[in-house]
Amino acid sequence: MGTLVAIEGLDGAGKNTLTRAVTERLTGRGLTVGALAFPRYGRSIHADLAAEALRGGHGDATASVYGMGLLFALDRRDAANEIRGLLGAHDVVLLDRYAASSAAYSAARLGESADGAAAAWVRELEFERFGLPVPDLQVYLDVPVAVAAERARSREAADASRTRDAYERDADLQVRTGAVYSGLAAAGWVSPWRVHGVDDAPELLADAIAGPS
User: Fold this and answer.
1) Cα–Cα distance between 213 and 105 in angstroms, integer?
2) Residues with Cβ < 8 Å from 67, sequence gap 6 or more?
3) CA–CA separation, 43 vs 46, rounded Å?
4) Rounded CA separation 99/97 (Å)
5) Among candidates 177, 187, 179, which has minimal Cα distance to 65?
6) Which residues form a coiled coil (predicted)?
7) Any bridge partners for residue 193, and if so which?
8) For residues 112 and 118, is the Cβ–Cβ distance under 8 A?
9) DSSP state of 34
10) Are 102 and 130 in contact (CB under 8 A)?
11) CA distance 8 to 105
């Protein structure tokens, strides 16, 4: 069974870039690596409904923090067997976002901290009730909010399909979400965490996953 690693961070933090770099380094050591990104837009009805809501669809759906969290949780529940299949076929499986994203954004929207009711609800729903695979390691890509926001804006300008949603456009929400992520990492929410700084080399994370080369 492979090692499950979830990479978390703000929108524009560089999660996909880090995932690719770590994949390259791990495969260079002879390990097999599987990857999956959440939300699974274009593959999951729940993820697509959430995306539509964040862009103004479905009336007041986004007003419900728990309702939005449930849509994202159902997307992950439906992917549970896919994750298990990847773990059975690879040495390492990297997830670009996982349950901690809902814990961080939900808590931030409600003005709660990492030890509040929203994060506890996500943990109980997704890992206990839905039985999602628990990550062996969770990584918080700690990037300054201003840097992440500029990357998100640049990405949007370069690619019309990457239009920022309501969460991504809310600068205050991004600040609060970053604070919750830091709290989740400090508390070891669900499983061990590692904080990866903006200037940290990808090989440091590869070493943390597979040991020094």
Assistant:
1) 36
2) 61
3) 9
4) 7
5) 177
6) none
7) 138
8) yes
9) E
10) no
11) 11
Phi, psi (rounded to 5 degrees) for 196:
-110, 115
How far is 135 from 137, CA to CA, in rounded Å?
5
Can you read off the two tokens belonging to residue 185? 């990492």
**Closest C-alpha to 176, from 99, 123, 103, 121:** 103
User: pTM of this prediction?
Assistant: 0.90
* Positive/negative CA dihedral, 185, 190, 194, 198: negative
For residue 91, the one-letter residue type is: D
| Strands (DSSP E) found in 26-110 | 33-37, 92-96
Backbone phi and psi for residue 157, each to the nearest 5 degrees, phi listed first: -65, -30
Sign, CA dihedral 34-150-201-204, equals negative
Token code pair at residue 211: 């040991």
pLDDT per position in the chain (213 positions), as tens? Answer: 899 999 999 988 888 889 999 999 999 999 999 999 999 999 999 999 999 999 889 999 999 999 999 999 999 999 999 999 999 999 999 999 999 999 999 999 999 999 999 999 999 999 999 999 999 999 999 988 877 667 556 655 555 555 555 666 678 899 999 999 999 999 999 999 999 998 899 999 999 998 776
CB 147 within 8 A of CB 198: yes
Please tell me the distance from the alpha carbon of residue 136 to that of residue 47, in angstroms, as a whole number.
24
